[in-house]
Predict the structure of Acyl-CoA dehydrogenase.
Amino acid sequence: MTSEVRAADVDRPAGSLEPSFRDVVRDFLASADVQAELTLLDRLEPGQEPGHSGIYRMLGERAWLAVNWPREYGGLDRSALDAATVAEELALAGIPDVAHVLSIDIVGSFVLMAGTAAQKARFLPALARGEQLAGVLYTEPGIGSDLSALRTTAEREGSGWRISGRKIYSQKSQFAGVGLCAARTADSEGSGITLFMVDMAAAGIRIAPIWNATEERFDDVTLDVRVAAEDVIGPVHAGFEVLNTVLALERTAIDYQGRVRRWFNQIRAAYTASAARTDTLDSRFRDLDTRIRAGRLLAYEAVAAIDAQAVDPAVSARAKWYNTELAAEVVDLGLEVTGLLGTVTRWDGEPGWRQTIEAMYRESPGLTLSAGTSEIMLKVVATFMGLGA
């Protein structure tokens, strides 16, 4: 883990579209058009969730949604730093970003890395324009984080493949046009995995909700679907190796640390305006503020490694572990200083900062699970430090 990033590097203009790129993005996200879209999202009833947001289309029109992608695929040929700037500002502005992470950071990155020229031209532009969402079909019942143990199969059928199996804990499947599906094509343990791009509207795909504590549901996806040979993304039987590389790209934790900072700022603002201030709590807020700043540097260190074409799985895992574990501490402090008022939901009373506390509390545990559990992240770091598993 040799990458290093200084505080001054995070917002430096070098490599950005222009010196004020972050300010331009921030101003756009504060614009009336974007805020109108956010107001619509705020009005969603329990059981509804954000899907194909107009905000993504607006970002796509500016080529900001996938700003680091080549121009021919809807980007601006910019750096990972620019992409991180957009991702961080989305999180800071409170804009739902799960669909962005799935479509751009995971599926798009995989196609960009492992796809053919024809596949890139076929799938990437619609994602970059915000016209289509993509989902991820990895996790299976009883499998958890061990993707090498997948049981969903893909068998040869004529010139194509027949995929049969079940995926759980997928997200945004009901909104997605396509899904990146990992399936077993050979019996070799630890390999024999192939990635396929699946049409989510195809006959033979059934999607059912898995309700959870958050406002964004999981999906239970059953597959019995035929795909063409040109829907294979990357090498046959060797998709697991490519997946591991893409996971390191996904785990920069930029989106997580942005969310943690937004939560902390909301809680601190309410606490500062309250009559319940104490020296002890003041000290704890200062401590958390410092640690959140440290988490941001860890995240941008992972981004710097991507720009340097020296992706380090341990650097990414460390950033992901640190920032998601920190989220729980921020939320715990929020509930401590707000008490019962912090449990009021946005459907129970007047809009205000209090309604976000209980939503944070429901969301924060899942951050330590998505994109790899905290335990897996520590194992990755330990392995790269030579400490064994």
